[in-house]
Write a structure and sequence with these properties.
282 residues; alpha+beta; Immunoglobulin-like; 2 domains; five-stranded mixed beta sheet; five-stranded antiparallel beta sheet; 16% helix
């Protein structure tokens, strides 16, 4: 019995030691990327990057797209194998570190690097309550679901804009809307805006409009001929009954057609009743 307990203790101690060893890392244990001042190294993540840290000023970097990082040494004159910097990349759900090693031979420099699953360390980012992948998945399911709201619509320029659904999931509202174009003129989308505005404005009162930045717009389509449907995701909010949530679409053409959908607070409150049914749908 004592030998058995001793064996269990040693096994537990070994596991703890292995965990502690894994919990810290030196640059020699990191993935290595060779870099050269004449080559731009492009790193691609599988999801949006929220933070990039380059440990020294020997390497320049920028982020041209949400999931792409570009790196390049600022100058020559370094020795082969010299560690110029450690780059730390934090996305919505994981983090990755690379040691950047200088090479004098341009052909050895890494030009294109995709962050592999084995290089990702799981990370709970407190600033992200719902990842872009999760958000897109829910929005797509809503886009494919039938309309449950039939009484919220507006008309302009022989077009009808309708609210199909409002879902609440996590910290976000998912606003599902569609537009029917009954003209023969294609609508080229300039922008889609979400605003919080006064319901009624008297001539003596200044209107207060608050622009809301969508967390995501599902469909990237730039134009449509007859029908259009999209899902916009905005952070949950409360607002007084004298305000309305407005989704506005404007056109690029000289004619400048625009159409807006006004959503009352009562409709937004109704979103809570859809939350569980959305998450349970297959």
């Amino acid at each position: 019995m004592n030998r058995h307990l001793t064996g269990l203790f040693l096994l537990a101690a070994g596991l703890c030691a292995a965990y502690e060893a894994k919990a810290q890392k030196t640059y020699e244990e990191m993935e290595l990327l060779t870099v050269n001042e004449q080559v731009t190294t492009v790193i691609t993540a599988s999801e949006p990057v929220r933070l990039v840290d380059i440990s020294t000023d020997k390497v320049a970097g920028d982020q041209p797209l949400d999931n792409i990082i570009r790196l390049k040494p600022k100058e020559a004159g370094h020795e082969d194998g010299e560690v110029l910097a450690i780059v730390t990349i934090v996305t919505e759900r994981y983090r990755t570190q690379y040691a950047l090693l200088y090479t004098t031979r341009m052909k050895e420099a890494v030009t294109d690097k995709e962050i592999l699953p084995a290089e990702r360390e799981g990370y709970h980012n407190p600033a992200v309550s719902m990842s872009t992948a999760e958000m897109t998945g829910l929005a797509r399911r809503i886009w494919n679901s039938p309309a449950k709201i039939r009484n919220v619509a507006s008309k302009a320029h022989r077009m009808t804009m309708r609210l199909n659904n409002i879902y609440a999931a996590g910290d976000y509202f998912f606003i599902d809307f569609s537009i029917e174009n009954r003209t023969n003129i294609r609508f080229d989308i300039d922008e889609i805006r979400v605003k919080l505005a006064d319901k009624k404005v008297s001539k003596a009162t200044n209107s207060q409009v608050i622009e809301l930045q969508p967390a995501m717009v599902l469909e990237p389509a730039q134009s449509f001929k007859r029908g259009y449907r999209n899902v916009i995701v905005v952070r949950k909010m409360t607002f007084p009954n004298d305000k309305v949530l407005t989704v506005e679409m404007t056109e690029k053409q000289i004619s400048g057609r625009n159409i807006s959908l006004h959503i009352d607070y009562e409709d937004v409150l109704a979103a809570d009743s859809f939350d569980n049914s959305l998450l349970e749908e297959e």
